[in-house]
Amino acid sequence: MSQAPAADAEKPPLKVVLCSPRGFCAGVVRAIDSVERALALYGPPVYVRHEIVHNRYVVDSLKAKGAVFVEELDEIPDTGAPVIFSAHGVPRSVPDEAKKRNFFALDATCPLVTKVHREAEIHFRRGRDIVLIGHAGHPEVVGTMGQLPDGAVSLVETLADAQSFAPKDESKLAYVTQTTLSLDDTAEIVEFLKRRFPAIVGPHKEDICYATTNRQEAVKRAAPLVDAMIVVGAPNSSNSQRLREVAERAGCAHAALVQRADDIDWENFGALRSLGITAGASAPEVLVEEIIDAFAMRYKVEVETMSAADEGVFFPLPRPLRQTEAAE
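Above: the chain's sequence. Below: its structure in token form.
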């Protein structure tokens, strides 16, 4: 007992600034709960097309409970087991194929992504060409573009893309955006499109989701105040990558994306007086705690919170999962 205070006294002090909000958003909670609820109601296996959210820890935890992850439906045998679509959304061809194969399909698409799908469909019905601001190959972008026929949606990733974009009719244009983008990057592209095409129609409400906005704002506030920033998240998580970029732009000398405590490069985090920590929307809080514990082994840690917003958003589960017990 007497040795612990001496060990702590030898550690250099470290102020940890925890960004709030961080971690799971309502859409991610709904998606994970959908898999866990399906497993509880129907038992394993429960098939999930694509990672339910972009986090290896979450995916591995669900695998251990009986979830089977696939990239395409043709990897699933003929089955009566639940087949769940991930939070990122899917092209229209996916539920069509599931219906043809008589799958028990459950859609865990985030309702804010579904909102973008519906917006694109309305613009298409009104005869508008659609610009989607997003990142090529991201599942959400693939899903949004896949709601409409080929050629109906043009992807714009950068300001250079916006400059070279050539619409068929400048008077019939609309834009939507991926929900997990950097607010600043998107604003620059949107402003340019509006100047170039004054008649372009945007969403009634910003497509970038509340969780992305709030997490980026907290990082902007904390980043100038700390020596370094850790973003807990996966490299294929768009919103996590954007948080790292936002930290750097806001004045943080070193920002790194880290999945687990074992991934910390201590050469870059070995001489600090202050550290910011946030987590992408698909990263569970247990991983944040794991990383704080890792720093507490080397530093005398004092934690404070930097808050940007209070979140109370809740999305209900897909309707078939709201029942209290499985049908006999």
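The chain has a mean pLDDT of 93.
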